[in-house]
Amino acid sequence: MRQKSLAVVALLAALCLLRPALAAEPAAWAAGGGLESPPRAVFPPADIDDVTELHADYAPGAAQRADAGAPDDAGGAEGEPLLNADYWLGYPLAIPRFFTAPGRFDTGDWIKAGAFVVAAGGAFLADEDLRRFFRHNRSHVSDDIAAVGYRLGDYKTILAGSAVAYAAGYAVGDRRLRETALLVVQGWALTAGATEGIKDLAGRQRPGYTDDHTLFEGPGGSGKSFPSGHVANAFVAATVINEQYHDVVWVGPVAYGLAGLVAWSRLNDNAHWASDVVAGAGLGYAIGMLVAHFSPFREQGDVTAAALPVAGGGGLQLGFRF
């Protein structure tokens, strides 16, 4: 168990240890739609020329505070994240939220959805060719590397890594790390349910059992290939972590790089068709974004006002968070 969770723990522990460098916060989603939104708007009076705009990015939970880089109290005024009722309510609410998500899409989201469909379709057409390529280039070295990828996508790794991260965040008073650990667990639980349901409905045979990549036996079939659960696990964790630490440049490449290693391992091991892998990545990404969007640890609907004195007059600065 300890070896399996090493890589995920290392990533989350690094975030904990580098906390003083994490003061800048990520941009949040707009409440009414879209995957991403710009920082909160600032509206100075139209007749004021010399105005210093104050930009403050949005971040989840207690990291929103001005002292975001400093330790908080274990629990703090906002209460311990694990005891947040809205967090637990998010589990059952995720189902209707998932199916109504297209109604909140903006142009960028539809472009991403279209790109995913094209990628999945292309992978399906290339399934057998890619299978032959990976089988021809498989070696003892690739198997050893793939073994690491397999462990990273295993549910025990996700759960153990999240538990260690939460404990570490509690020990050092890092609320954002605790919130991230809980959101990763929520994302994993939702992804596990979705992947198992789709596997049962599709009944697709794994490439190790058939040469026919179109063999979908449907409900009741013995196949469990579509989509890849390991890849979905890896991508939901990577997406949640990246959204929580969007202000830290190296987090995204590392998180998605590790998720990509999981995807590659499933192809190297001939455990999944390429289209299984693409579908798993897309599912994990979508659920990860959903979990981040509806995180109960982010402040919503805030309106702030502050006097803005300038030479020869004054003004009012309004800040909105959606």
The shape is globular
Total beta strand runs: 2
Structural class: mainly alpha
What is the strand content?
A: under 5%
Count of alpha/pi helices: 10
Strand order of the largest sheet: 1-2
The percentage helix is 40-55%
Radius of gyration: 22 Å
Outline the biggest β-sheet.
2 strands, antiparallel
Going by CATH, the architecture would be Up-down Bundle
Oligomer: single chain
N-C termini distance: 40 Å
**Whole-number mean pLDDT:** 79
Count of folded domains: 1
CATH C-level class: Mainly Alpha
CATH topology: Vanadium-containing Chloroperoxidase, domain 1
Poorly predicted ranges: 1-77, 301-306, 318-322
SSE string, helices as H and strands as E = HHHHHHHHHHEE
Structural overview:
The two termini are 40 Å apart. Strand 1 (303-310) and strand 2 form a beta hairpin. A two-stranded antiparallel sheet has the order 1-2. The model is unreliable at 1-77, 301-306 and 318-322 (pLDDT under 50). The chain has 10 helices and 2 strands; from the N terminus they run H-H-H-H-H-H-H-H-H-H-E-E. It has a single domain (6-37, 59-297), classed as Vanadium-containing Chloroperoxidase, domain 1. The longest helix has 28 residues, at 175-202. By secondary structure, it is mainly alpha-helical.
Q: What is this entry, summarized?
A:
By secondary structure, the protein is mainly alpha-helical. Helix content is 53%, strand content 5%. The protein has helices at residues 6-17, 85-100, 107-125, 127-136, 140-153, 155-172, 175-202, 229-244, 251-268, 274-293; strands at 303-310, 313-320.
